[in-house]
Specification:
48% of the residues lie in helices and 10% in strands. The chain contains 15 helices and 13 strands. The strands form four sheets. A six-stranded parallel sheet has the order 6-7-9-11-12-13. A three-stranded parallel sheet has the order 1-4-5, with no helix packed on it. The protein has a two-stranded antiparallel ribbon with strand order 2-3. The two termini are 22 Å apart. Bound molecules: manganese (II) ion.
Length: 426
């Protein structure tokens, strides 16, 4: 299913007057306060977030999974779904594939399809957290950290294969997330597990093309509930440093214990030039896979404040790989992703409204109240008209969620694919 330009133009016609009114009001207010509205709008339009292939179907828990009708059941259909998101939002210009589920059977055809939809291939993700059919070794007791050399070699080879697949598609990064750890005290020797992981990562790193990055993701717990080998940003940073210049830490919002100061983590990693990528989601308790910005929008804004600062002040840190990483169980996955993209853009726009010079002066004067006022005044601004303008300028719709419903995208997908398709790669 493709959304035609005429459909978008027709849809926008109805909301244009109201958009112009609210945009003009906000733009004149911001301009009076010294903001360069044009630059902010163009920065928003440039900001692209990769969609993970596993977020396009309904997620599940170990208690069950409720399928959502019309889910994509092939890589081609997944790309089509990202195409729908991108044509509405103009923010989803990349896809992140999960191997082994998303191996193309015809690389040229897949690249052609992605080009036509204006979608790039972002980081590719390996999977050593579950066993594949016919695999010689099992990951039940870990993969890159396993006590068995044969298991480690299988996991290393899988990652090298994933790099080859990504390379054929134009991808430039490998994301490694490990479920390795232990569920009971005494089960693992911490030092051996960590050293095995380091050695395995170095073997993978050796297979990385020169212009690639390796992104090392961390997570404190789950699926193991006593220890995780790469449990925090410190462990990830040590492993990345142990590999070399092309290895970086990847921060996933949901992969922290409650109340962790994620904005501080992000900030320090940028200072050290070691923040490679970012996974957006939200959570109340743990890795809850909730819609970005649905629980802690202010924390997201504070993170963006640091990211914006880092993008402006830390040339030693490379451009970041931005990706949504959430896949939960009851919303239409595409509507969920639209809401997430909107929340990301909103937090980014608000962070762009922070006067960094004014903040710096207030910090130097130890004017604590002023510092807070600067942040909160940016946060309290309703920036949605700026997002609408950025989308309109790029050929997207004023309100993606309303357009998605008005155009009955899900109905169209069900008609095309049938009801009982199941997305793979979850
Ligand atoms: Mn993640």
């Amino acid at each position: 299913m493709k959304i035609q330009k005429e459909q978008i133009a027709d849809y926008n016609q109805k909301g244009l007057e109201s958009h112009n009114e609210s945009f003009d009001f906000l733009a004149s207010k911001l301009t009076k306060n010294g903001h360069d509205v044009k630059t902010i709008v163009s920065k928003l339009a440039e900001f692209q977030v990769a969609i993970p292939s596993w977020a396009l179907g309904a997620g599940g828990t170990r208690f069950g999974r409720f399928s959502f009708y019309g889910e994509p059941s092939s890589l081609e259909q997944k790309l089509d779904d990202v195409g729908v998101l991108h044509s509405l939002t103009q923010t989803a210009g990349a896809v992140s594939l999960h191997i082994p589920w998303d191996i193309p059977s015809d690389y040229a055809a897949i690249k052609e399809q992605a080009d036509a939809l204006n979608i790039k291939f972002d980081a590719v993700n390996s999977n050593t957290f579950q066993d594949q059919k016919d695999a010689a070794e099992t990951y039940k007791y870990g993969s890159l950290s396993n006590t068995s050399q044969a298991v480690r070699e299988q996991a290393i080879q899988h990652n090298l294969d994933v790099i080859k697949i990504g390379d054929k598609l134009g991808s430039k990064a490998l994301t490694v997330w490990l479920a390795d750890g232990s569920s009971f005290p005494g089960q693992n020797n911490f030092q051996t597990a960590f050293q095995n992981t380091q050695d395995s990562l170095i073997d993978i790193y050796k297979g990385l093309p020169d212009d690639w990055k390796m992104l090392v993701e961390y997570k404190p717990y789950e699926p193991n509930f006593y220890s995780t080998v790469i449990q925090d940003w410190g462990a990830s940073l040590m492993l990345a440093n142990g590999c070399g210049d092309k290895a970086y830490t990847l921060v996933d919002l949901g992969h922290h214990l409650p109340n962790s100061n994620i904005e501080q983590i992000v900030s320090i990693l940028q200072l050290k030039g070691k923040l490679g990528g970012f996974h957006f989601n939200d959570s109340k308790y743990g890795d809850d896979d909730l819609t970005v910005g649905s629980i802690k929008p202010y924390a997201l804004f504070l993170i963006f404040n640091e990211l914006v600062y880092g993008m402006q002040n830390n040339p030693q840190n490379p451009d970041l790989a931005w990706m949504i990483d959430a896949s939960h169980n009851i919303k239409d996955p595409l509507e969920d992703l639209i809401q997430s993209l909107e929340a990301i853009q909103e937090a980014y726009a608000k962070a762009l409204l922070i006067d960094q010079n004014e903040l710096r002066t207030a910090q130097l004067n130890n004017d604590v109240v002023k510092c807070q006022e600067i942040l909160q005044s940016a946060y309290r601004t309703d920036v949605r008209p700026l997002l609408e303008k950025a989308r309109l300028n790029s050929g997207g719709v004023i309100s993606p969620i309303n357009a998605y419903r008005a155009l009955d995208v899900r109905g169209g997908l069900i008609k095309e694919r049938g009801k009982h398709t199941v997305a793979t790669g979850l």
